[in-house]
Amino acid sequence: MDFIIGSGSKPAAGGATPSDLIKDGSAATFTADVIEASMKAPVIVDFWATWCGPCKQLGPALEKVVREARGAVRMVKIDVDKNQELAAQLRIQSVPTVYAFANGRPVDGFTGAQSESQLRAFVQRLTKSAAQPSLAEVMDEAKALLAQGDAETAAQIFQQVLGEDPNNGPAMAGLLRCLMAVGDVDSVVQMLGQLPPELAKHAEVAAVRTALELQQAAAAGAGQAAELRRRLAANADDHQARFDLALAYYGAGETEAALEELLELFRRDRTWNDDGARKQLLKMFEALGGAHPLTLQGRRRLSALLFA
Q: 3-class DSSP state for residue 273?
C-alpha cells in the first residue's frame, strides 16, 4: 500500500504522522482502513477516477484540508476503476463522491467538486460529531440494520462490541441472529456449542437457541404448506395439520401466520398433544423476544383465550 506524504509536514496531533493521515485504499483494505480506523477518528473516503477532471481539483484540496486537521480526521482514496465491485456495493454513481465514516458506519458525504471553505466546513462537522456513541446506541443501530435486512453490516457492529466485551450477551445473540439471517446455520450451531456456560444461559442467547430449534423443526415441513392447507380445508379440526402448518409458516418467515394458526389451534383444543399449541407459542414468543410487537399481541390474545 502506498502512502501519500506531504513534504515538510510536521507530525499530526495525537501521534499520527502525515503518512498515516492519507492513503490509497482498495476493496481488500477497506475494512481495516475505513471501518476499523473510523472507530478511532472519522475517515473521509474519496472515490475518484484518473479520467475525472473534477477529481483532480477536489483530491488535492481535500488532502490539504485533512492535513490541516492534524489527525482529527483521516482520508482514504479509492480508484473506482480499480475497485468497481466496492464502488457498486457503496452505490457510487458518479465521481468524485466523498463519504465520511465514523464509528464504523457512514455519517456524511457529498458528490462533485467543493471549495476549500466547503471542505473545511465538512471536516468541522465531522470532528464535532465524532464523539463515541453509547453502547446502547451502537446496539440499537445494529439491531435496526438487522431488522432492515442488512445482516452483514449489523454483524460487523456486533463483532466490534464483542471485541471490546466478549461476554456481552445481547451482542452475541445479535451476531448469531445475523448468521441465521444469511443462512449460516452451521456456524450458529458451532458457536452455541462453544459458548461459556454463563453466556449460553443469557436470555437473548437462549432465545436464539430456541429460534434455531424452531427453524430446524420447521425445515422438516418445508414445501408442505399447500398440502397442509388442503387438509385443513377438508377438516378444520385436523390439529396435527394445523400445528405442522404453523411450523411451515415459521420456517418460511411468515411468523404472524404461524402464530395465528397456533392461536386457532389452542382455541379449538387447548389440551391437544399435551398443551402443544401453547408450548409452541411460548417458544415462538421467546425466539422473537419479549418486546417484539407480535409477541406482545400474541401474549394478549393467548391470555384472553386462557381466561375466556
A: helix
